[in-house]
Amino acid sequence: MAIPKAALGQMELLVFDLDGTLVDSELDLANSVNATLEKIGRNPLSVEIIASYIGQGVVVLITRALGAAASPELVERATEIFLNHYRDHMLDNTVTYPGVREALAELDGRKMAVLTNKPVNFSRRMLAGLGLAERFVQIYGGNSFENKKPDPIGLHRLMEETGALPSRTMMIGDSVSDVMTGRNAGAWTCGVNYGFGAPTLDGAPPDIRINDLRELPELLNGKS
After folding, report:
1. Is 191 helix (H, G, I), strand (E, B) or coil?
2. Which one, 120, 135, 179, 223, has the greatest CB density within 10 A?
3. What is the residue-wise DSSP string for 103-115?
4. What is the pLDDT of residue 224?
5. Contact between 180 and 207 (Cβ < 8 Å)
6. For 130, how many CA atoms within 13 A lie in the half-sphere containing its CB?
7. Is the pLDDT of residue 191 over 70?
8. Cα–Cα dist 171/114, whole Å
């Protein structure tokens, strides 16, 4: 463990990624991507391939799904198609990962926020639909700021709003983007091994890695 036990016990602000960390949204995202591809006359992609494209925002997701040769005009059109479909289907199959609700309940009392590259209105609607929105003091998305993760602008804003120091802040996520966001802001980082972005954590190891979000309150409360 790279975080001293004393520091773990002093965490004041916990900032969570959304897709691949709090919620398993893989199938709904994949279905919306494939609905988009079908509408523009393209062949569908596997869920596994689409999952590997998730994490850098909608435009990057669609650009990767279309391929490097896609024109900016096609990317823009496909992005609009995707958003219109996903808006109506984002909660068809999406659920919280096992242990997420229990972990958030046990962490209640600490300041918690969400920082995701998913559009902010979609993120807030999703968390509200899952009954989780009230757990968080703030929910920011990929279009809340000028730059997306791994730019630290969103994490800096959350620390400013809550009065938390970087040394008492932790970024929790399933991908290298989340780890780099935390590092770029001077905060601690926690990687979750169950998310679809988890393979990228090997390239930028977080301060701690967990297999189940229920391990986090145990660590922060000195039970592990």
Report:
1. strand
2. 179
3. HHHHTBTBEEEEE
4. 56
5. no
6. 25
7. yes
8. 9
Helix (H) or strand (E) holding 183: helix 176-185
User: Model confidence over 124-152: pLDDT tens digits?
Assistant: 999 999 999 999 999 999 999 999 999 99
DSSP calls for 50-113: HHTTTTS-HHHHHHHHH-TT--HHHHHHHHHHHHHHHHHHTTSS-EEPTTHHHHHHHTBTBEEE
Of the candidates 117, 104, 135, the one whose C-alpha atom is nearest the C-alpha of residue 217 is 104
Residue 216 CB neighbour total at 10 angstroms: 25
Whether the Cβ atoms of residue 51 and residue 194 lie closer than 8 Å to each other: no
The catalytic site residues sit at 17
Determine contact, residues 173/192, Cβ cutoff 8 Å: yes
| Angstrom distance (rounded) from CA 54 to CA 44 | 16
Instruction: Give the span between the Cα atoms of 116 and 139, in whole angstroms.
Output: 8
Whole-model pTM? 0.95
Is residue 191 within 8 Å of 200, Cβ to Cβ? no
Q: Count helices and strands (H / E) in the chain.
A: 10, 8
Region at 186 (left for phi over 0; alpha for psi -120 to 50; beta for the rest):
left
Residue 112's nearest CA partner among 128, 141, 140, 135 is 135
Listed in sequence order, the residues at least 6 apart from 188 whose beta carbon sits closer than 8 Å to its beta carbon are 3, 7, 11, 167, 169, 170, 171, 182, 207, 208
Number of Cβ atoms within 10 Å of the Cβ of 5: 11
